[in-house]
């Protein structure tokens, strides 16, 4: 009887419930990318599946993790942490290639040359650096001995930058262009010379008991990496943001990220976009 049930599970379509977020505005590009990548992974997994959508409002990742734990839906993308990996099952392939931790800075026009005075991370303490009070990014900067002015939200931080209460606002290279468009303030611009980088992983997570789906996502992502479809999709969403940020021209200041779980696949260099940039800069310097 047990073998019959196992056979039925292996041959029947896998029902996959995925959250479809209503009223996505500021980060709709990322949301669409994760959705397409999830379907791409399932399409490359070799299994028969049926995708069903669960309509949800925009919600914090901590809430999404609880909904997976409660089996309201089966999988979603989230930034990793030791706590999250203890509660849910990650597929340890970084969906954004670490770009969430590749940060470029917003400044007022009067501070456009700020980066000329920053050679190492401690030089940032000559300026007022803003971040959210409960962001992991804030913990990372502080752990690297960078003083941080904290605020409750991204909107508040933009307002503080306008009002000269902070000088430098690091944002992910994949977030900053859309944020600038929404801000529509000609006095706010990208500082052109430096970028901060710390490895930061966004994974698909499943319920710990949903081994079949977790394995399918992993197999599908690995196959998409090998056949080039992962990079094709990634570039279709983010190549223009990277081009606009002139990453090849920036001096990248590497920071430690002690919040990463110990088994983050840092040794798999092709998973991390910024590693190629750092390697290129090292080779050029040599």
Quick synopsis:
It is built from ten helices and twelve strands. It has helices at about 1-10, 30-45, 60-70, 80-85, 135-145, 155-160, 175-185, 210-225, 230-245, 275-285, and strands at about 15-20, 50-55, 75-80, 90, 100-110, 130, 150, 170, 190, 195, 200-205, 250-255.
CA gyration radius, whole angstroms: 20 Å
Strand fraction: 15-25%
- H/E order of the elements? HEHEHEHEEEHEHEHEEEHHEH
Please count the beta strands (DSSP E, at least 2 residues each): 12
Count of domain modules: 2
**Protein structure class:** alpha/beta
Provide a descriptive summary of the structure in words.
The protein is an alpha/beta fold and 286 residues long. It has two domains: 14-97 and 201-240 and 270-285, Periplasmic binding protein-like II (D-Maltodextrin-Binding Protein, domain 2, 3-Layer(aba) Sandwich), CATH 3.40.190.10; 99-197, Periplasmic binding protein-like II (D-Maltodextrin-Binding Protein, domain 2), CATH 3.40.190.10. Helix content is 39%, strand content 21%. It contains ten helices and twelve strands. Strands 5, 8, 9, 10 and 12 form a five-stranded mixed β-sheet that branches. Helix 2 (28-43) links the parallel strand 1 and strand 2 (49-56). Helix 2 runs antiparallel to helix 9 (229-244). The longest helix is centred in the last third of the chain and has 17 residues, at 211-227. The radius of gyration is 20 Å and the shape is globular. The model is unreliable at 1-8 (pLDDT under 50).
């Amino acid at each position: 009887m047990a073998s019959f049930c196992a056979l039925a599970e292996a041959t029947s379509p896998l029902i996959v419930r995925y959250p479809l977020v209503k009223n996505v505005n500021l980060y709709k590009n990322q949301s669409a990318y994760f959705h397409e990548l999830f379907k791409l992974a399932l399409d490359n997994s070799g299994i028969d599946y049926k995708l069903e959508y669960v309509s949800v409002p925009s919600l914090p990742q901590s809430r999404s993790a609880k909904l997976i734990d409660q089996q309201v839906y089966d999988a979603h993308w989230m930034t990793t942490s030791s706590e999250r990996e203890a509660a849910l099952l990650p597929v340890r392939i970084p969906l954004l290639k670490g770009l969430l931790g590749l940060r470029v800075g917003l400044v007022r026009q009067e501070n456009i040359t700020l980066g000329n005075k920053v050679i190492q991370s401690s030089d940032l303490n000559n300026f007022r650096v803003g971040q959210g009070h409960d962001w992991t990014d804030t913990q990372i900067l502080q752990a690297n001995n960078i003083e941080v002015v904290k605020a409750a939200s991204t909107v508040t931080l933009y307002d503080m930058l306008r009002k000269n209460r902070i000088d430098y606002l690091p944002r992910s290279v994949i977030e900053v262009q859309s944020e600038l468009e929404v801000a529509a303030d000609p006095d706010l611009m990208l500082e052109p010379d430096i970028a901060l980088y710390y490895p930061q992983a966004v994974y698909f997570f499943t319920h710990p008991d949903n081994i079949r789906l977790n394995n399918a996502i992993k197999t599908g992502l690995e196959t998409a990496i090998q056949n080039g479809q992962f990079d094709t999709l990634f570039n279709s969403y983010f190549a223009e943001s990277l081009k606009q940020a002139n990453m090849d021209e920036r001096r990248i200041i590497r920071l430690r990220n002690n919040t990463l779980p110990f088994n983050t696949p840092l040794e798999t260099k092709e998973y991390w976009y910024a590693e190629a940039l750092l390697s290129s800069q090292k080779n050029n310097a040599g």
